[in-house]
Amino acid sequence: MISADIPHLDIDPYDPAVMADPYAMQARLRAAGPVVWLEQYGVYYVTGHALARQVLFDPTTFSSAHGIGLVGYATGLTSTTPSPLLETDPPEHDRFKKVMLRLVGPATLNRMRARFEPVAEALVEALVARGRFDAATELVTAFVLDVIADTVGLPQADRWQLLVFGELALVSSGPRNASFDAAVAAVKQHDTMAWVQQATDRANLSPDGLGAALFAAADAGEITSAEAQRLVRIFPTAAVDSTITTLVNGLHVLAARPDQWQLLHAHPECARDAFEEMLRHSLSVQTVFRQATRDVKLGAAQVKAGQRVGVCLAAANRDPAKWPEPDRYELLRKPVGHLGFGGGVHACLGQMIARLEAELLLKALAKRVSNIELDGEPVKRVNNALTSYASLPVRVTSG
Ligand code: HEM
Questions:
Q1: pTM as predicted
Q2: CA 6–ligand 1 middle distance (angstroms)
């Protein structure tokens, strides 16, 4: 039984052609209403900022425990196992979050700044000296991959496997389509699960990383060893691609907006503001799902217990009822209330880490580069969870 009083639409947000430019689709959905019914998948889909907040901030009514992808675990259609943090509800969720939050506090952030600021400076200096480089692969991916792997304490060898593993986690949030099949094939081809198993094994983690700290929490009896290993694996899935792709999208925007780049060049100390507006305007991550635990009114929709509700964070971040001229990137907008990191009890655990990474990279670039522009056609990267660029060739002028 579905609400008759909201629009029923035959739009597929997972169609690769739609994902390549999701903003046109999101505008159509939003014009139909802040919440619609998607015929093809039999789910509600929220694009309005106020309703998105209603869902995210009420985990009792809108549960994550059935999975945060399109298909709930109860259907048996999803092959992945639930994430111990993202796909649990309070109070179980809070037990894990408490342990994890301690790990990403000020002490870790200070250590990370000291360790990775010189890395960002050296990487940017070398690329800027060349004048032309791929901002997606050589700059952002190279940096983020090393920062996260080092911080967690993963072995040096074959860290690229994190990208293969991350892709599988991302596509698993959508329908079983071509991008899902490709990710499964890549994981098999590279024997990625064996690498992940080995890399996150306690014996192979460096003693000063966040992974070892999770096993120490297990020793202290806060969690079990098996839970510690599952929590270590959250980092490759949650921390790597989300940061890479949002930063790449943001650089793509800045390469087309000389006025905004010049502002950043003149004020490198605004690197964090630049990233915050990227999280609103250029968010790569698209939609998270919840499952209603009771009948509830959501805008004009009468949601029934058991029905699934998608929250399109990227669309809510461009809701004109929330921000003036939402399709414009404005570096100094200070978009308080954006949903780039979600919200409520599941708000992104690594948001301060992501902000730090972005600040270090953008500041190093802004200090040295007076102009940045595209140097060829970017190559799109789309999958069931996000939209970004696999390759972003740029030409920079130092000064
Ligand atoms: C630009 C980068 C990032 C973006 C856009 C992003 C986005 C998000 C979003 C939207 C959620 C909420 C999901 C939901 O409500 O269902 C989330 C949760 C989470 N993120 Fe991030 N994230 C980023 C970086 C990171 C990093 C660097 C880490 C780890 C170091 C991380 C770890 C997590 C974890 C563990 C959760 C689950 C929190 C919970 O369920 O309580 N993320 N992230």
A1: 0.96
A2: 31
